[in-house]
Amino acid sequence: MNPDALSGRDLDASIATELFGFIVKRLEVHSRSGTSEALYDAGPDEEHPVWVRVPYYSSTLSASTQVELELRNRGRKLQEPRGATSWDSPGDVLVVLVQADGGRTVQATGRLEEALCRAALKALAR
User: Fold this and answer.
1) pLDDT-derived band of residue 103, with 50, 70 and 90 as boundaries?
2) Could you tell me what percentage of the chain is helix, strand and coil, using 3-state DSSP and rounding each to the nearest 5?
3) 3-124 belongs to which homologous superfamily?
């Protein structure tokens, strides 16, 4: 998997699986809208799956904040995005994640939320 080639719901589903460890189910492309959907099991300890929509990690501030917080919990620090004046800046930015102990650094470009998700997947790669 090449994180730089992922976008939209494919990127969201990868974050849900790789970063948060969710069991994800992909649905077929919707005939009217032309978009696909991703669901995750919100009740893995329940007798029956509780399927809910995977958050839009790569396109909304609230969901991408969950990504950043999980990365911090894992010892990753987000450097100030280059090319952005704020979280809602239009256009592409460079996101750099640094391991807190001075270890490996990864980076990705794209819209801020998208670049954060791509960098997160790179950070998780061995």
Assistant:
1) confident
2) 30, 25, 45
3) Bacillus phage protein-like (3.30.2120.10)
